[in-house]
Amino acid sequence: ADLARLRVDIDDVDERWLRSFLPRHSPTPILPEHNARITVAQRQLFDYFDNGSVSLNVVTPPSVWRAFGDADGAALSGSSDGGGSSMWELDVITPEEALVEENSAGVGADGGGSGSLSALLRRVHVKTPLLGSDVHVIPTNTFFSDLARNQVCSLRRLRTPTKALVLGLDDHLCTAMSGIGADCYYDDDFGVGVIAHQRWTLDGDSQYHRILRLKMTYVLRVLDEGYHVLLSDADIVILHDVREYIVQLNATADMYIQSDARPWHAEKKDWVCAGFFYLRANDRSRQFVKQVLAIMALYGAPDQDVFQLLLYGRGQNFKFGHDWRTQHLRGGGGGVGIREGAFSDELITAAAVRVARTSAFKDAAELGLSVRVLDEKRFPNGGRYFSPRRKQRGRTDELIVHANMKGFPKKVEAFKEDGLWFLDALDTDRCVA
Questions:
Q1: I want to staple 144 with a disulfide (CB 3.0 to 4.6 A). Which of 121, 159, 234, 350 is the partner?
Q2: Residue 9 in this model has a pLDDT that exceeds 60
Q3: Is residue 189 packed enough to be buried (19+ CB in 10 Å), middle (13-18) or exposed (0-12)?
Q4: What is the pLDDT of residues 363-392, one digit of tens each?
Q5: DSSP string spanning 109-129?
Q6: How far apart are CA 74 and CA 54, in angstroms?
Q7: Which value, to the nearest 10 degrees, does the dihedral of the CA atoms of residues 195, 315, 166, 66 take?
Q8: How far is CA 305 from CA 308, 312, 341, in A?
Q9: Taking Cα atoms as reference points, which of 415, 311, 314, 427 lies closest to residue 372?
Q10: Residue 402 has what DSSP assignment?
Q11: Contact at 8 Å (CB) between 169 and 140?
């Protein structure tokens, strides 16, 4: 269902870059997993969307491409349109972990008529004894809207159904979520402005990283409103009330975070996951998030690597210099270099800029931030939950299931195979009973 026919004129587009848009089963070689950046050639391809040659349907479903013009559907391996230009018809699938953003009017800062962020937070917050007032947020983009809707459905199936606020990481997400009646917010001041379809990348200037910074900017804004944050990525299913579990732990830590350990790798046994955490609203947590944003901007590092750095003194895939605490104050030094124009990004808050320009960074312990890593069996990552051994013993006492470590199509397939897909097969705007 994710495949569609796309006819484009590729006279001036480098064939090597077009290959990155082909499906995995194509005999044509695929580019390396980690694309460094959007190339000029790829941007040229995007121009076809702007001039109306082809269009992107980003709502239902987001991964389908539609072509205008000939409707005969004839497969072409290469032909001439009579004017001397080569025409190709490609089987196109948006890449795994793709991000979908587009230059358009958007739904606006009110999330499609739902009011300001403050008003939405007042409406969806939950007050729990020993915890106080918190908001469950699901930051995501249009490409993952089906997964986000599935998570919303999982929340409605709990013994005590609970709400979440979906945070739009592009300006179409709230439209995609409106059919299922989900509360959604998008701030159009943060529109990133260029169509981008990228896989995971370490390039700090990519649209992918700008979206990661928007995610953490939203977290800081919720904390600044005085609410604790329960954050879950879209590719998560909630099976039991997480708040009840945290209360049972006596709820004394500032942060509760999911483990992303890979037991088969000794150096990855302490990895954490920035895609699921509970963070209390206090000065320590706000300072932590400001530092996360500042370090992401300075070094072009993903949020999860920065979490790992501040908790354990090193990144995961991203390698920081030994003097990461002070290098930014000198403008040089050993290790990884500072990005040029690091703070020209409108997603970096003035508070984060101030932190980076005036003081050395502190790790979580130096900030006084108390952290507790959640039980790997109760909060399994994708590698643990979908392992053959777990499948043999069946589901037991998991509170959530996180389908990370899987590409997009496999996330959905894995949920469906395990009975964790709660969207109606014929109407994805409706939860199954």
A1: 234
A2: no
A3: exposed
A4: 999 999 999 999 999 999 998 898 877 766
A5: TTTTTS--HHHHHHHH-EEET
A6: 17
A7: 30
A8: 5, 10, 21
A9: 311
A10: E
A11: yes
